[in-house]
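Hi V.,

You were right to ask for the full record rather than a summary. Here it is.
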Amino acid sequence: MRRFDGDRLVVATHNTGKLEEIADLLSPYGVTLTSNADHGLPEPEETETTFVGNARIKAHAAAQATGLPALADDSGIEIDGLGGAPGVYTADWAETPSGRDFVIAMERAWMELEAAEAPLPRTARFCCTLVLAWPDGHDEVFPGVMPGQIVWPMRGDQGHGYDPIFQPDGYTQTFGEMDRWEKNKISHRADAFTKLKACFG
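Predicted structure:
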């Protein structure tokens, strides 16, 4: 594994919430973080069919454009009763002509589970793949997973995306009911970051 020995890192995202979460996780390492927005970079088209493929696209695009190491993630939810859908299309299920609406996405997921007569518990997992890329084309890959189940009706107004219908294994609350920073300690992204920290430690 290649060690990260610099002091500047580009987080390949325009999502300020994600940038804050990553900054919190990397705060012990004294790394200065910037985002795609800080460098005026566009979002590259995500054309792959896997989390690692799309994370690689984003990380390498940012590293090439800035000449700095770049960190990207691709994440989503896989629902077993839907054959692993929506997977890499997790955000696409929320797209509407006026922007993303995850209530619509959650309703679709539940209606499709009902139509499929999927057995209970309706197991699912949040997945996150982090890719740390260098300008010379090298990268390191760190996958993370949080298993759980889909519940209905929606519960909680914390978090984002499908959090109100995802109850992680070992907990009675949904991600939507958990404190944001508590959730971040156990999430799929935290699992991936535990592995990533080997590059920094």
